[in-house]
Amino acid sequence: MTTSHPPVAQHRRAAERLRRTGPGLALAVISLFTVAPLIAVVVLALSPKDAPTLPHAIPHSLTLDNITRIFDIGEFPVWLLNSLVYSAVSVVVILLTASMAAYALVRKRFPGRNILLWAIVATLMVPMQATLIPTFILVARMDGVNTLWGLIMPTLANAQAVFLIRQFVRDLPDEIFDAARIDGAGEWRTFVAIVLPLIRPVLATLAIFVFLWHWNDLLWPLVVGQTDAARTLTVGLATLHTETVSTADIMSASLVSFIPCLIVFLVLQRHIVASITSSGVKG
Question: How confident is the model at residue 283 (pLDDT cuts 50, 70, 90)?
Answer without folding.
Answer: very low
